[in-house]
Amino acid sequence: MDHSEILADIKALLASLKSELPPASHEMVEGLVAHGEPKVAIEILCEHLNELGVVPDAPVYSQLMRLISKLGLGEVYGAMVPRPDKPRASDG
């Protein structure tokens, strides 16, 4: 997976999450992608998903985990993203 493929995958993730993220979060990550900063874009995306309690669906979650791995980001980023198979704290 080369740099341009990673950026395209991040754009696809953003499109999948557009209705779940506030415009400011979407624009911030999109801006980082436009400036060729995929690692920072994924870091910020993970942080925002965590802070907002956005649970991505299973395919989006899987793609995000693959990108985290490909970019060599630490486990902390994968762990902070809410898993689609775990109930939210507010659900129980």
Describe this structure in words.
- This protein is mainly α and 92 residues long.
- The chain has one domain.
- The chain has five helices and no strands.
- It has helices spanning 3-17, 23-34, 38-52, 58-70, 75-80.
- It is globular, with a radius of gyration of 12 Å.
Nutshell version of this structure?
This protein is mostly helical.
For this entry, give a set of tags.
single chain, 92 residues, mainly alpha, 5 helices, 66% helix, 0% strand, globular
Give me the secondary-structure topology.
Blueprint: H1 3-17, H2 23-34, H3 38-52, H4 58-70, H5 75-80
Number of helices: 5
Q: Could you tell me how far the N terminus lies from the C terminus, measured between alpha carbons in angstroms?
A: 40 Å
**Low-pLDDT regions:** none
Mean pLDDT: 92
**Tell me, what's the shape?**
globular
Beta-strand segment tally = 0
Structural category is mainly alpha
Question: What is the gyration radius calculated from CA atoms?
Answer: 12 Å
SSE string, helix = H, strand = E? HHHHH
User: Which percent range describes the beta-strand content?
Assistant: under 5%
Fraction of residues in helix: 55-70%
Number of domains: 1
